[in-house]
Amino acid sequence: MLGIHQNPVKLQVHGAELSEFNLDLGNNNLRYNLSLNFSIRNSKSCIGIHYDRFEAMVYYNNQRLGRVFVPSFYQGHKNTKTLETMFQGQNLVLLGDDGRRKFEDDRKIGVYGIDVADEANCSVPSQSTVGFL
């Protein structure tokens, strides 16, 4: 019997630069320009992972602003991959009165609650040598 332990792949944001984040109150369009630097850690000791599809998404007030597709790549065992992504554009956001007040408060202090999520389809390449546990 072959067993593979489920060590999670870890994603960590190391840097972010928000150069534009403006809400047009007349038409509810939010213009944004956000660059993110993050890393993905494969902590498995003997298994590499091929990311067939990797997508990063950003949200403000539970509304998706944008998404970026990263080209497929292979990550070896005990390896960290650093990625840089850029999210930019404009989206219609429906904030309501409370959400608009929250946006104005965020704007005044210069700190916005932007959430980052990822989604990936992965595969583990087959190998000719199999170890038994």
UniProtKB/TrEMBL annotation:
Transmembrane segments: none annotated. InterPro entries: LEA_2 (IPR004864), NDR1-like (IPR044839). It comes from the Eukaryota. It holds the Pfam family LEA_2. Keywords: Membrane, Transmembrane, Transmembrane helix. One of its GO terms (cellular component) is membrane. It is a single-pass membrane protein. It is found in: Membrane. Residues 38-87 form the Late embryogenesis abundant protein LEA-2 subgroup domain. Its main location: membrane. This is Syntaxin-24. It comes from Cardamine amara subsp. amara. The lineage of its organism: Eukaryota, Viridiplantae, Streptophyta, Embryophyta, Tracheophyta.
